[in-house]
C-alpha cells in the first residue's frame, strides 16, 4: 500500500476479504468513517489560512514566522505519508486509525489553547503527522470494502474531499475566526473526532498486530527522509531572515539536509524494501507527473496563502469575508467533479493536464494587475478560473501517474506522488513567505527613491494632504509625511503580491511542456482523485 493509493494486498492488513456484489451497511459505515477522517485532515491543511492574521497577533508571530503554522503541518504530513502502509501492516487498520484520530484531536486541542508560536508549531506538526495517515487510509477502506460497481461512488466521495478540502478550509476558518474565535478552528475537531472514533469501532474489524515487522523496518531510510525534508524546509523558511549562507545555522542545516538525502540514497541501494522506492522515478512518465504535481502543489498552497494575505492586509477584509472570496474557486469543482470521470479516457490526458495548467497560470496572471484599491470583487474571475485549472490538472494527472508505472507498482508510486504534492505545498508556502519579505523591502526602497519629500510628486502629495488636515502647518506636514510613508509601504506590498502571482504563473507555464512525457491511462480505468 502507499500513502495515497489505497491499494493494500489482501492478507497484509486489508480490511476483510474481497467485496461482495453489493456493500453492506457496515461497509458503508467504514467508508463514511474513512471519508470523515480524510475530510478532517484535509480541512486542517488550510483552515488557518484566513485566520492567520488573528493567530499571528495572539501568538506573537511575524508574517514569515506565521507561514510555519501551515508549513509545520505539511512537513510532518510528508513524513507520515510513506509510513502509512507499513504502520497499517504493523498495527492493523482499525488500531492505526484509532491511534491517529485520538492523537490528531489531542494535538488540535493543543493548538486551540496555544498562546505562543512554539506551542502552535508543535501542535500543528502533531496534527500533520497523525493526519497524514487519515487521508490514504480512506482510499484503503474504499478499495477493500466496496465492490467494483460501487467503486466510482466511493472514489467520487473521496475526490470531492481531496480537491475541496483545501478550498473550503479557509472558508470555515474565516467564519469561525470572525464569528466565534480562531481557536475553534481547532476545537471543532473534538466532536468530529468523537464521531470518527465511534464509526471506526462500528465499521472496521479488529486485526492482529504484527510487531515482528519492527525488526525489518527501513529505519535508515525513515531517519534520512525525516532529516532531509525537515531541515530543507527550515532552510527555505529561515534563509531570508538569516541572510542565507551568511548564517552558520543555515549552512549547518543545509549540510544536515544533504546528509539526510545521502542516507536515503544509501537505504535505496542497500535495503531490499526501502520505505520510499525512488527507483520508480527512473520511469520518465512517472517522474514527469511527480514533478508536475510538486509544482502544482506549490502553486495551490502559494495562492491559498497569498490571496487571504492580500485581502486582509490591503483590502481590509476580515477572515469571514476573505473566506467567501476563497470559496469562489470551489464552484467549478462542484460543477466539474460529476463530469470529469466520464470524459477522462475519451480525451488525451496530456491535453487535459496542459489545459488545467494554463488555466491555473491564467488565473495568476489575472491577479498581477491588482492595486492598492483592489477588493474581493477583483478576484472573482481569477478564483473561478483557478478552480477550473486545479480540477482539470488534478484528476487526469493522478491517473497518468498510475498509468505510467502499472498496477503492480501503484502503491509505492502513489506514495511518492502524494509526498511530492505535499512537499511542493510546503516549499510553496515557505518561498512565498520569503519572497514577500524580500520583495516588499526592494519595492519600498525603489518607491522611496522616486517619491521623496523634496520630489515634485512628494511635494504635491504633502501639500494636498496638508490642506485637507485643517490644522497648523507643522502638524499637517508631519501627518502628511506619515500618511505618505504608509501609502509607500502599502504600494510596495501590493507590488510584492503581484510579483508572487507572476512567479507562480511563470512556474506553471514553464512546466506545461513536461506534459508531453505523460502517459494516458487505458480506457475503462476507474478514475481516482489522489491527494
Structure at a glance:
This protein is an all-alpha fold and 531 residues long. It has helices at 25-43, 52-59, 63-80, 84-91, 93-112, 117-145, 148-179, 184-187, 189-203, 219-238, 248-270, 284-313, 319-326, 330-336, 340-343, 349-365, 380-405, 410-450, 456-469, 473-511. It folds into 4 domains: 1-217, Up-down Bundle (Growth Hormone, Chain: A); 218-274; 278-436 and 497-531, MFS general substrate transporter like domains (Growth Hormone, Chain: A, Up-down Bundle); 442-492, no CATH class.
- Using the coordinates shown, work out and report the CATH topology of the largest domain: Growth Hormone, Chain: A
Percent of residues in helices: over 70%
Main beta sheet strand tally, sense and closure: none
Fourth-level CATH superfamily of the largest domain: MFS general substrate transporter like domains
Rg on CA atoms, Å = 24 Å
Characteristic terms for this protein:
531 residues; mainly alpha; Growth Hormone, Chain: A; 4 domains; disordered N terminus; disordered C terminus
Please tell me about this protein's structure:
The protein is mostly helical and 531 residues long. The protein folds into four domains: 1-217, Growth Hormone, Chain: A (Up-down Bundle); 218-274; 278-436 and 497-531, MFS general substrate transporter like domains (Growth Hormone, Chain: A), CATH 1.20.1250; 442-492, no CATH class. 72% of the residues lie in helices and 0% in strands. The protein contains 20 helices and no strands. The protein has helices at 25-43, 52-59, 63-80, 84-91, 93-112, 117-145, 148-179, 184-187, 189-203, 219-238, 248-270, 284-313, 319-326, 330-336, 340-343, 349-365, 380-405, 410-450, 456-469, 473-511. Helix 3 runs antiparallel to helix 18, helix 4 (84-91) crosses helix 5 (93-112) and helix 14 (330-336) packs across helix 17. The radius of gyration is 24 Å and the shape is globular. The protein starts with 24 loop residues before the first helix and ends in a 20-residue tail after the last helix. Residues 1-19 and 523-531 have low confidence and may be disordered.
Amino acid at each position: 500500500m502507499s500513502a495515497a493509493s489505497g491499494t493494500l494486498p489482501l492478507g497484509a492488513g486489508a480490511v476483510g476479504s474481497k467485496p461482495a456484489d453489493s456493500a453492506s451497511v457496515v461497509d458503508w459505515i467504514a467508508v463514511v468513517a474513512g471519508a470523515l477522517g480524510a475530510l478532517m485532515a484535509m480541512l486542517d491543511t488550510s483552515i488557518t489560512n484566513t485566520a492567520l492574521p488573528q493567530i499571528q497577533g495572539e501568538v506573537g508571530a511575524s508574517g514569515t514566522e506565521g507561514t510555519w503554522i501551515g508549513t509545520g503541518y505539511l512537513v510532518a504530513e510528508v513524513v507520515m505519508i510513506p509510513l502509512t502502509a507499513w504502520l497499517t501492516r504493523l498495527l492493523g487498520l482499525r488500531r492505526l486509525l484509532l491511534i491517529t484520530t485520538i492523537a490528531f484531536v489531542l494535538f488540535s486541542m493543543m493548538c486551540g489553547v496555544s498562546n505562543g508560536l512554539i506551542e502552535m508549531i508543535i501542535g500543528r506538526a502533531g496534527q500533520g503527522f497523525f493526519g497524514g495517515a487519515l487521508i490514504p487510509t480512506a482510499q484503503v477502506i474504499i478499495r477493500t470494502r466496496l465492490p467494483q460497481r460501487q467503486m466510482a461512488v466511493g472514489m467520487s466521495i473521496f475526490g470531492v474531499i481531496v480537491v475541496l478540502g483545501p478550498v473550503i478550509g479557509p472558508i470555515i476558518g474565516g467564519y469561525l475566526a470572525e464569528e466565534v474565535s480562531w481557536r475553534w478552528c481547532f476545537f471543532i475537531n473534538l466532536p468530529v473526532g468523537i464521531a470518527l472514533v465511534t464509526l471506526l469501532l462500528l465499521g472496521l474489524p479488529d486485526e492482529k498486530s504484527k510487531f515482528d515487522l519492527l525488526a525489518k523496518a527501513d529505519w535508515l531510510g525513515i531517519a534520512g527522509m525525516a532529516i532531509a525534508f525537515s531541515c530543507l524546509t527550515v532552510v527555505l523558511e529561515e534563509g531570508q531572515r538569516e541572510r542565507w549562507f551568511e548564517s552558520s545555522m543555515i549552512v549547518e542545516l543545509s549540510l544536515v539536509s544533504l546528509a539526510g538525502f545521502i542516507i536515503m540514497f544509501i537505504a535505496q541501494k542497500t535495503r531490499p524494501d526501502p520505505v520510499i522506492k525512488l527507483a520508480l522515478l527512473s520511469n520518465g512518465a512517472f517522474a514527469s507527473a511527480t514533478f508536475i504535481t510538486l509544482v502544482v502543489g506549490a502553486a495551490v498552497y502559494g495562492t491559498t496563502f497569498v490571496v487571504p494575505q492580500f485581502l486582509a492586509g490591503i483590502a481590509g477584509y476580515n477572515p469571514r469575508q476573505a473566506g467567501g472570496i476563497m470559496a469562489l474557486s470551489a464552484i467549478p469543482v462542484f460543477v466539474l467533479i460529476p463530469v470529469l470521470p466520464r470524459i477522462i479516457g475519451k480525451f488525451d490526458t496530456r491535453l487535459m493536464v496542459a489545459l488545467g495548467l494554463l488555466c491555473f497560470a491564467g488565473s495568476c496572471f489575472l491577479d498581477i494587475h491588482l492595486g492598492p484599491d483592489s477588493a474581493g470583487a477583483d478576484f472573482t474571475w481569477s478564483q473561478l478560473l483557478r478552480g477550473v485549472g486545479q480540477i482539470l490538472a488534478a484528476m487526469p494527472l493522478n491517473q497518468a501517474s498510475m498509468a505510467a508505472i502499472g498496477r503492480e507498482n501503484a502503491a509505492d508510486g502513489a506514495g511518492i506522488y502524494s509526498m511530492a504534492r505535499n512537499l511542493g505545498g510546503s516549499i510553496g508556502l515557505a518561498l512565498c513567505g520569503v519572497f514577500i519579505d524580500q520583495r516588499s523591502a526592494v519595492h519600498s526602497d525603489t518607491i522611496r527613491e522616486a517619491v521623496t519629500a523634496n520630489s515634485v510628486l512628494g511635494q504635491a502629495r504633502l501639500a494636498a494632504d496638508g490642506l485637507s488636515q485643517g490644522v497648523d502647518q507643522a502638524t499637517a506636514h508631519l501627518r502628511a509625511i506619515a500618511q505618505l510613508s504608509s501609502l509607500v509601504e502599502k504600494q510596495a506590498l501590493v507590488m510584492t503580491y503581484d510579483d508572487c502571482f507572476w512567479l507562480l504563473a511563470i512556474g506553471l507555464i514553464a512546466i506545461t511542456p513536461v506534459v508531453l512525457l505523460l502517459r494516458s491511462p487505458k480506457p475503462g480505468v476507474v478514475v481516482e482523485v489522489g491527494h
